[in-house]
Amino acid sequence: MPLTKKSKMLPFLILLLILPSLNDAIYDGKTVYNQIPPKILQNMISQACANVEDEVNCLSNVESRLPNGPRNASSVLRAALEASLNEVQQAIRKVSDFSSLSSSTAREQIAVEDCKELLDYSVTELAWSLSEMREIRVSGSVHDPRGDLQAWLSAAVSNQDTCLEGFEGTNQHTRNYIKGSLTQVTQLISNVLTLYTQLHVLPFRPPRHKSHNNGYNNNNDTRKINDQDNFPQWMTEGDKELIVSSSPSKGMHVDAVVSTDGSGKYRSINEAIDDAPNHSNRRYVIYVKKGVYNENIDMKKKKTNIMMIGDGIGNTVISGNRNFMQGWTTFRSATFAVSGKGFIAKDITFRNTAGPKNNQAVALRVDSDQSAFYRCSMEGYQDTLYAHSLRQFYRDCNIYGTIDFIFGNGAAVIQNCNIYSRTPLPLQKVTITAQGRKSPHQSTGFSIQSSFIYANQPAYLGRPWKPFSRVVYLNTYLSAMIQPKGWLEWYGNYGLNTLYYGEYRNYGPGASVAGRVKWPGFHILRDASEAMFFTVGQFIDGEMMNIIIVNTTVVVNPDGSGDFTTINDAITAAPINRMPNTGYYGIYVATGVYQEYINIPSNKKYLLIVGDGINQTIITGNRSVGDNSTTYNSATFAVNGVGFVATDITIRNIAGAIKHQAVALRNSADLSAFYRCSFEGYQDTLYAQSMRQFYKECDIYGTVDFIFGNAAAVFQNCNLYARQPLPRQFNLITAQGRTDPNQNTGFSIQKSMIRAADDLASSNFTVETYLGRPWKEYSRTIFMQSFLDNLIQPLGWHEWNGSFALGTLYYGEYNNTGLGSNTVNRVTWPGYHVIIRTMASYFTVSYFIVGDFWLPSTGVPYTLGLF
C-alpha cells in the first residue's frame, strides 16, 4: 500500500528513546513501537537502581513489578515509580517511630512531624505521576503530560532535603538516623527523574488524533504571551474573571465569608478552611473581609481548588510571628502555608512580624501545584517567601525581606511585582533569592519578569542555596543599590559551575552587567528565544518543552506526489521572519537524490527539514575552489535563518579531494541543530561559520580542516571520519577560527568517535591525521569523553604556520579513550591543555551554548553536561 504523508513520518521516531507517553500511542489507527530492545530495557532497569545502597534488592524490586508480557520504556518507568513509592511509604513508617519518643526536644519533634508531612507529599507526587501515566496509556489523551510529570518528580526529589534541614539546631542524632532512612528514597526518586528526562526528548511525536497537522503537534496548543494574556494556561477563564473582577463586596459570588466583626459566617480563616470541601474539583471561594487575622494557617493538600480573596493589600492581613529562634523549623514557621493543589489568593497581605533578630521566619510557604497569587503582599525579613515546591505564579505582588527572602525549589514566575529589601542586622548582606534546585533534571527555578527591585542598601540578586540553583531576571528594573557584581557566593566555589543565573534586558542604575560575576554559571541572555524559556508559557505551563511544535508541514518529493518537487521551491514558499512562538515551518523531504544548491536566507527563520534518513534523502553538489568558486560560495547547503533544524538528511559535496576547498554545509544560523545527518566532503566539509550550533549523532567525513569556522558548536555522539587526502597532504579534523579572546566561540567534540573512513583504513594509515590546527589566533577546540582511534598522531595537534597562535590558542582534551588518546607525547604549546572535569564542564551543552534553554524547543535530544 502506498505510504500516505502521515505514515511516511513513522521513520522519524527514535526507537531507543521512546517516550513513556508514546508506548501505546495511536498513529493512524496502529500501535507504534510498543517494545524496545532487551539490552536497552536492561540498561534502564540498572539506571533505576544506580547508586542505591542495596542495589541487588532494588533490582529485584523493580523486576518484580514489571509485567510478564512485553516490556517497554513505560513499563520500566512505572515499575521504578512503584518501587520508589513503596520505599517512601516504608520511610514514613520508620520516621513515625520517633513521634512518641519523650526524649526528643521540641524542635526535634517538630522536625519529625515535618518529615512525615514532607514524605507524604512525595507519596502524593509519585502517585500523581503513576496515575498520569496510566491515564495516558489507557485513554490515549492528547494532553502532553511532561510538564506535569517533571514538576511532580522534581518536587518529590527535594522533599527529603527539607525534612533533614529541619534538624538544624539539634544534636543531629535523630537527623542521622532519619537520613539513613531517606538516602535510598532520594536516590530512587532522583533516578526516576533522570530516566524520565532522558526518555522524553524525542525530536518528533506522532499525533493521537488525525486532526493534528501531518504528524506534528499543531501550534494551536501554544499560547502567545502578551499584556492581555499572560496568566498560566492552567488557570481557567472563570479563574481569570475572578482575578480581575471587582471585590466580593460588589456582588461577586462567594462560598464563605470571614470577618472579625461577626458579619460573615466565620470569624477565623482556619474555621472557613476546615468547612471547605475536601478534594474539590470546583473553585471554592472564601472572602476574607478587612481586618488583621492573627492566626497561623496550614492549608493541607486535601483542600484543593480554594480561592481566597481579601479587601486589598494592607486591609486584609494575616499575621504571625513564628520563627527559628522560638524553636520552629523554617518549614513550620510560616504564617500561611498551603499545599492543596490549585490555590489562588487575591488582595491579601501575608505577614511574619518576628523581625530580623529571630532569623528564619516565613510569611508564606507554598507547596500548592498550579497556584497563583494576585495583588498580594508577603512581608518578613529572612526567608519571607518560601516557594518550596511545584508550579507557582505571582502577579502584581509586593515582597519584602532581607536575607534569601525569596527561596525554595518551586518553579515560580514572579511577574510585575515589587520586591523591596529591608534593613538587616549589622554585618548581614541582603540577598534577594536563594533558589534550591539540586539536580539538573529538575524543572524548577525562579523567573522574575517585568518587575521592580527596590533596595535601600547594598543588595545582591541571589546566591546558590543548592548546586543547580536557577534564577533569571527579565525586563526588570534594578535600583542603584544592586551591587555591580550582581550575585553572591553561598560559600567558596559551591555551585558556581553548576548554577544557572541569567539576566535579560534589565534596566535601571543597577542593571549594568559590565561588572557582573564571571562564574561559568552566570549568563547574560542576549537573545529573546533564550529568555522565552523562562516565560509563563514555557517555564510553568510546560508548553514547547522538549517537543517540537510545527505550525505547517509541506512535502517535497521528486516524483510529484508532494507539494513541491524541489527543496528550493519549498523554502521559497516558507513565510519570512517567523517568531519562535508560532512554531516551525516543517519541510518533509522524501527519499531521493536532490541535485540542487540550497541557500536559506536570514529571513527564513525556524525552518525544520526532515528526511527519510542518512543515505536516503541526499542533497548533493560539486562546487569548489578548484572550479573557481570561493570557499564560502562552494556550499551545497547553506543556512542563515535563526532556529534552523534538520534531521535524517545527507548533505554532500562530491567535488573530491583534487578540487581542494569544497563545502558540503555552511551554517551561520543561530540556535541551529542537526540530528542524525551526514556531511560528506573532503577539504572544508563542514563550515560552522558563526553563532550557536548543535550536532547530535551526525556523521562527518573529510580530509583537511573538515570542520572549520568560528561558531560556538557542540558535537555530541557524532562520528568523525578522516578520508584519504591528496598525496603529500595530511588530515586535520578541525580548524577553528576564533579571532578574539572575548568571543564565546569554539568547537566542543563530546562523546564522539574519531575514526578512519574505509579508504583511509585500507591505506594502512600512511597518512598522518591530527585533531586540529589553529586557523586563527585564538582558535579553541576541545575533545572530551571521545574515542580517538589509532589514526591520531601522538602529537595530537599540528601548527598552522610556525609558531602562529601557539601561545594564544586553547586546545584541550578530557577523558578520551582509544589508541589515539594517549596525551603523553602531545604538543607542549602554551595553549594546549589536558583539562580537569571542572574545566570540561564549561564546554558542555548547558554552559557553552546554553543549550538547555533553546534545544528543548528543537526536539533534538541532548545531554546537558558531562557523560
CATH topology tier name of the largest domain: Butyryl-CoA Dehydrogenase, subunit A, domain 3
Mean pLDDT level: 86
How many structural domains in the coordinates?
4
Low-confidence stretches: 1-35, 138-145, 201-229
The residue fraction in helices comes out at: 10-25%
Q: Spatial order of the strands in the main sheet?
A: 3-4-7-10-13-16-19-22-25-27-28
The count of DSSP E runs of length 2 or more, i.e. the number of strands, is: 54
What keywords describe this structure?
elongated; Pectate Lyase C-like; 11-stranded parallel beta sheet; 20% helix; enzyme inhibitor activity; 14 helices; 25% strand; disordered N terminus; 867 residues; 4 domains; alpha/beta; Butyryl-CoA Dehydrogenase, subunit A, domain 3; 54 strands
Describe this structure in a few short sentences.
With 867 residues, the chain is of the alpha/beta class. It is 20% helix and 25% strand.
Report on the structure:
In the C-terminal section; belongs to the pectinesterase family. GO terms for molecular function: enzyme inhibitor activity; pectinesterase activity. The protein has 867 residues and is of the alpha/beta class. The chain folds into 4 domains: 212 residues, Butyryl-CoA Dehydrogenase, subunit A, domain 3 (Up-down Bundle), CATH 1.20.140.40; 166 residues, Single-stranded right-handed beta-helix, Pectin lyase-like (Pectate Lyase C-like); 126 residues, Single-stranded right-handed beta-helix, Pectin lyase-like (Pectate Lyase C-like), CATH 2.160.20.10; 155 residues, Single-stranded right-handed beta-helix, Pectin lyase-like (Pectate Lyase C-like, 3 Solenoid), CATH 2.160.20.
